[in-house]
Design brief:
Elements (H helix, E strand, L loop, with lengths): L8 H21 L25 E2 L8 E2 H12 L6 H19 L18 H8 L3 H13 L4 E5 L2 E2 L4 E2 L9 H5 L21 E6 L1 H8 L12 E4 L5 E6 L2 E4 H8 L6 E6 L2 E7 L7 E2 H9 L4 H8 L4 E4 L5
Parallel strand pairs: 5-12
Antiparallel strand pairs: 1-2, 3-4, 3-13, 6-11, 7-8, 8-9, 10-11
Helix pairs in contact: 2-3, 2-5, 3-5, 3-9, 3-10
């Protein structure tokens, strides 16, 4: 058989090819790999409570006010700053609840009057408090901050958190006041009359003033014939005199009385109208709140006394 020359050449050729390939791919073995972007971490499906950014539009002002700053202005206007801190906290929660309910979380304006809630801006607070401004402002803000975002709910909904200055020993029910039955605005006991210096006041009228205000033609002797119909909380439902009749609320408004719990008499040839308490009497009594706080009650305990079967919750951001 003829011997084949250069039989090792194919093996050498194959070895060279392997070496070339190794040299070609070698740099890639040590090249730094680009890091792929990390996938977004999936968020929990459980709803997370968040802070509600609510602004309040006060009628007469073009600048919207942060909710908590608005509450500071209401507490400063509606409750004496000398009251106990827990009473101020109760007022803050009631005021916050009231404005959110009545404005649909800031969607509509609110009047800064007694018909709604009185509100004092910073300039008015400085003018009213003068040298005590810093101390008073700090006390009110501390009460508001300590209740930030807290509201009063009944059956999962904001309540109409009505409040008044001082009761006559019993608060008024919503049914007696407006004819509308609300389960959380029932008559409850209130001991504020024991703490208020000005619980009972007397207003006097001449017969001429009386007739002008009531559009009557009474004589002084006729006043003895007046008839007062009172309800179960001691407040006047109806006033009747010589064929004319008024509701207790209308009578109070016409004569500018402090409450609808009143008695009428003739003293020294003038008509004397003596009232007990101050305000419409519905919901939380502010003097009652202070009395309860002095006796050791917390803000939540005060509110749950005056607003029956309610709970204190954080604002629910629905939108």
């Amino acid at each position: 058989m003829k011997k084949i020359k250069n039989a090792k050449h194919p093996i050498m050729f194959l070895s060279m090819m392997v070496l070339v390939a190794a040299l070609f791919f070698f740099p890639f073995l040590f090249k730094k790999t680009e890091k792929e972007p990390e996938a977004a971490v999936p968020q929990s499906q459980t709803p997370i409570a968040k802070a509600c950014k609510v602004t309040i539009h006060v009628s007469g002002s073009e600048v919207p006010i942060d909710l908590e700053d608005y509450v500071v202005g209401v507490v400063a206007a509606e409750m004496p700053v000398s009251f106990h801190e827990e009473a101020l906290k109760a007022q803050a929660i009631a005021a916050r609840t009231y404005v959110l309910k009545s404005t649909n979380y800031g969607q509509t304006p609110i009047e800064p009057t007694v018909a709604r809630q009185v509100f004092y801006d910073e300039d008015i607070r400085k003018e009213n408090w003068q040298n005590a401004y810093e101390d008073n402002e700090s006390k009110v803000r501390q009460a508001v901050e300590g209740t930030k975002g807290e509201v009063i709910e009944y059956d999962g909904e904001l309540i109409t958190a009505m409040f008044h200055s001082m009761s006559n020993g019993m608060t008024e029910s919503s049914a007696n006041y407006s004819g509308t039955e609300l389960p959380y605005l029932q008559s409850v006991s209130s001991t504020d009359f024991q703490y208020a210096n000005n619980y009972e006041t007397t207003s006097t009228f001449t017969i001429e003033e009386w007739n002008r205000l009531l559009n009557t033609s009474n004589r002084l002797a006729d006043i003895h014939q007046i008839r007062l119909q009172k309800n179960n909380t001691g407040r006047v439902d109806k006033v009747a005199l010589k064929g004319k009749e008024w509701t207790g609320r209308d009578f109070r408004t016409i004569l500018g009385l402090r409450s609808t719990d009143f008695e009428i008499d003739v003293v020294d040839k003038k008509i004397a109208v003596t009232t007990e308490g101050y305000g419409h009497g519905v919901g939380m009594s502010q003097y009652g709140a202070d009395a309860m706080a002095d006796q050791g009650s917390t803000a939540h305990e005060i509110l749950q006394h005056y607003y029956k079967n309610t709970s204190i919750e954080k604002i629910n951001c629905k939108n």
